[in-house]
Amino acid sequence: MTEASTSTKSGLARYLTNQTDFLNPKSPTSPLPALYADLSRQRKTNPAGFRSNIEWWRNMLLDVTFKGVQYEFDPPCPISASASASDVDVDTEKPKSGGGGDEVDRTVFRLDESTKARWTVDGVGRPLGLGTVILELEKDFSLVSLDTFLRSTTPILGPASLRGKEAGGLRDYIPRVGDVSWTWITRPLQWAASSLLSSVIDIDHGEDNDGEYSQDERMFKQKKGDWVWIQLVHLLGTKYLDQHYSESSSNFSALSNLLTLTEFQENLNVVCNQQFGFKPSQRDTNLVLKHLVRDRGGIAIFQGGLLKLASSQDHDAVAKPINQQDLEIFTVKQTLGKLERQIDCLEFQISIQNQRIKTYVSKNRKVQALSYLGFRKSLEQDLQKRMGTRDNLKQVILKIEQAQTDIEIMLAYKSSNEVLKTILSEKEIKVENVEKVMDEIEKGIQDVDDLNDLIRNHGYDLDHDELQFELSELERENKAEEDNKIKLNDQMKNKQRQKQQEDQLKESLQNLSLLNTPPDDSISTEKQANNQKDLLNQLEQSSQHSSKQAIAQ
């Protein structure tokens, strides 16, 4: 498909041209023939394929609804809520014309005859199973009819994926189309076998088969109408609460939890524009409001045209009913809001007059310039008065909020005091009872100590003299053992000295053996005789010393 032909399309047609499964619908491997076929037959012949088809359609219908492309036209572009003087015609003082399309729902899917026509694909035809798809999505509470959603007085919890948790984002509900594993479609042999099995079943059913073929068509007729995506309503509600309480935490104000329908819609528009880039329809706003009041555990109440939110987003936080004090405070808030709008209008008018003055001065039209200068001066004086009144009113509101906080603090003190009184009134913590219990505890501890002493000393009549005698014997034995150690140590030393002496004697004997060798001519006979005499004296002294040591031992 060429880029030129794609650029001429809008709405759903353009969306489908960018989806992988629609790029080549006539290909033998394309899943579209199975997806566009009579799904009621696949429920029996191919249960796995049936569930895959339902999931594919769930993702596609959810995506086209949230993106605002379920119709033949493109969704309108979000328009900034803030306007400047350059966006206004100087002469008429009216906003310049801008673009914008029809308002489109982002949480409601419409099923009618035109739906089939918009989803028609060349070479494949119209989707035959949309009635069955809506039926299956209704069974698991993903879709609820618009009438049921608006009329129900009991909470609508939605599909199991939403129960017991808070949604984190659109990806929690819209898996990327194409992520589903189409195993039975991408295996031609398996699909052929499934088709053959279906043909056999059709033949066996005979006339009943005609009714089964028309089941999708009957479902389509029964399910025509508008259907609310619970996931998408829940998503917008969650994003709104997150934004509201994040702003309240940074700039807390008790008045911020009281809103008119207009304020709620404006705030929701800002959240959707920032988070998703679109402006919700009036129907989307009503559905989100209904969801917050009915389905979110009492975090919001709607009473007398006012929406009141709980003081926090905690799990157990509940909005209190709107009382007369809330209404009076809200009147002050409304007055402040009017002043803010008047100030914005005056500032805007002053900017317009500035442009006019510059224009007439540049054209040398002094009379007109002076006229607008005077008008601007009066506007500026009025602006100063309004700003002074606004500042005073803000101070009043600040005092009111401080007083409310003081009341809450005093109520907390009072509640705490009541709890303390209730606790102190219990019989168990009376002073006399406490003293009695402490005395009993002390007596019990003393009894335990006495019992332990009795157990340790029972059956043991000790004789201190006998113990002293045993101690003396132990000391004597210990001293004798020490003496033996010293004696053994001395004997070891004597043995070492004796061994050294024996080694010396052996060396002396070796030297004596040298006397038997022939005399050296270089040594005189007298000198040799003296050496022999010295050796003999050493041997004699060594022998005598050894004998004395042996006798001493």
How would you describe this protein?
This protein is 63% helix and 4% strand. Among the domains are: 3-229, no CATH class; 324-424. Strand 5 and strand 6 (306-309) form a beta hairpin. The longest helix has 59 residues, at 366-424. Mean pLDDT is 80; it is low at 81-100, 165-171 and 173-213. The chain has helices at residues 3-7, 11-17, 32-35, 39-45, 47-66, 113-118, 130-139, 146-151, 188-205, 208-213, 215-222, 230-250, 261-275, 282-295, 324-362, 366-424, 431-457, 464-513, 525-552, and strands spanning 108-111, 143-145, 225-229, 258-260, 300-303, 306-309. The chain has 19 helices and six strands. Helix 4 packs antiparallel against helix 5. Pfam families: Snf7.
